[in-house]
Design brief:
The structure is a homodimer. By secondary structure, the first copy, chain A, is an alpha/beta fold. Chain A folds into 2 domains: about 70 residues, Orthogonal Bundle (Arc Repressor Mutant, subunit A), CATH 1.10.10.10; about 110 residues, NAD(P)-binding Rossmann-like Domain (Rossmann fold), CATH 3.40.50. Chain A has 9 helices and 9 strands. Chain A has a 7-stranded mixed β-sheet, with helices on both faces. In chain A, strand 7, helix 8 and strand 8 form a beta-alpha-beta unit. In chain A, helix 1 runs antiparallel to helix 4 and helix 2 crosses helix 3. Chain A is globular and about 60 Å long. The mean pLDDT of chain A is about 95. Chains A and B meet through helix 1, helix 5, strand 8 and helix 9 of A and helix 1, helix 5, strand 8 and helix 9 of B. Bound molecules: nicotinamide-adenine-dinucleotide (2 copies). One nicotinamide-adenine-dinucleotide (NAD) sits at the interface of chains A and B. Chain A binds a DNA duplex through helix 3.
Chain lengths: ~210, ~210
DNA sequence: GCAGTCATGTGAATTTTTTAACAAGACAGA
DNA sequence: TCTGTCTTGTTAAAAAATTCACATGACTGC
């Protein structure tokens, strides 16, 4: 089918499929049907087939999908069959947890540089990386080939961090701070806020209740 | 209008509205129109009016919305106009960052108990809380009135943690571990995985490129 | 090599969500 | 009090996403 426009929701589900497929593979499953995968992901099986159809034909009729092959195909489709180099801005509580979290590298996102404006932090070594001032972003980004910026500053500093990233010609931004940022529209921004999920849980609990 | 079923996407957007409205309030804005708010949130203004209409009429025609009032109304609608008591399971890298993050309490989600099965961690004091074994969840949950469980264990331990939470009659679960869990269907589960967002960024960058 | 079973890929039908359009209400100024 | 300007709440239209349904291809066992 190989479609033009892909729903955002599809991308989110593909991430879930990968997660479940990797666990299936670890448990020794070589092949899986869309129906079984659907159950594991709590979605409709047509949904899975349609999501995959946006990118190509990865299954075998009458058989299902070869798990390893499907993982590879999905990763290719998403563009995560390579390493993306990332810059972290803000090495506080959250930033440190991210730096220590080695899943990033395993999953194809390597944090290659860490920036913080706190004079007490600049110069410190952290997880084999020296913390430097964000003003160096502009020179380091091309040198290190940094493509994605991860903002983990307080919310009122997020825009400033974003400006540094834009100046440094970064290609995409993840913002962990709970505030919106303005950047040129060719640069995609994703906002990460756990509270979305907490609100959703609170709401669902409250609903079932009234 | 006061509708029956509310789209999940609406809940996500309400979280964004709150975030933006709180920043607006801090900057001294008392009133805002759906059009202005829409721009700040990068959505359509009809969308905002429709989202709000699910819950009631909060605006004044010809004027707009009173910011503080609107925040209050949205919080009431979501059921976050009170404190939700949470249990954290897994006090590692991630769990510690969550415990240290005081926004939780400020935003109405108080982590009142921390559980970990590591004998080296049990008994330690952390942020004024003693880390205890998850087997105590069952007795502590009713005592402390714990309603929401936050899982921050490694992925292969998430199901076990979920079982403890279910046993303890917890009412909703947030899972930070990258694995799906099975729980009785009256208990809502939300999965938090940053990689969704990283994938989305990688995909968008790749798209613009080919 | 044929029959039976299974599961994909896809067009059509359905449902859901988003956007547009506008009538009705609120306020300010004269 | 009346007029003109705004902006909401809501209905109708459009667009998008999800689900259904089934023809098509693949593999198994006889
Ligand atoms: N810690 C969590 O669990 C958690 C959870 C959700 C969201 N967040 C969000 O993540 C962000 C960071 O949280 P945190 O707990 O790490 O805060 P933190 O205060 O511990 O760390 C913030 C860091 O950013 C640095 N910083 C400030 N301004 C900067 C600038 N202009 N350039 C570079 N660095 C700058 C500070 O020096 C500090 O080291 C916050 O916006 C917070 O709301 C954190
Ligand atoms: N650190 C991050 O930035 C980050 C980011 C995204 C996702 N995550 C996910 O969050 C989870 C935790 O990550 P982490 O970095 O904190 O790992 P971690 O290994 O530092 O911590 C895990 C903790 O869970 C405890 N634990 C293990 N089994 C348990 C059980 N059955 N009951 C109670 N406690 C148990 C361990 O003793 C340990 O303290 C992982 O699933 C990880 O993939 C972490």
């Amino acid at each position: 089918m190989k479609s033009e426009h892909i729903p955002k929701a599809t991308i989110g589900r593909l991430a879930v499929y990968i997660q479940v497929l990797e666990n299936l593979l670890r448990d020794g499953n070589d092949v899986i049907s869309s129906e079984k995968l659907a159950q594991a992901c709590s979605v409709n099986s047509s949904q899975i087939r349609k999501d995959l159809a946006y990118f190509g034909e990865f299954g075998v009729r009458g058989v299902g999908y070869y798990v390893q092959e499907l993982i590879t195909s999905i990763k290719q489709s998403l563009g995560i069959d390579r390493v993306w180099k990332c810059a972290l801005i803000g090495v506080g509580n959250m930033g440190s947890a991210l730096l220590r979290h080695h899943d990033f590298e395993r999953r194809g996102f390597k944090i290659c540089a860490a920036f913080d404006c706190d004079p007490d932090k600049i110069g410190l070594e952290f997880e084999g990386m020296e913390i430097v001032c964000p003003t160096h972003l502009r020179e380091q980004a091309p040198e290190l080939n940094l493509e994605i910026g991860i903002i983990a500053t307080p919310p009122d500093r997020a825009q400033r961090a974003a400006n540094h990233l834009v100046d440094a010609n970064i290609r995409g931004i993840i913002n962990f701070a709970p505030s919106r940022i303005n950047v040129p529209k060719h640069i995609p921004v994703e906002y990460v806020d756990f509270f979305d999920h907490l609100y959703a849980i609170a709401f669902q609990i409250t609903l079932g209740n009234d």
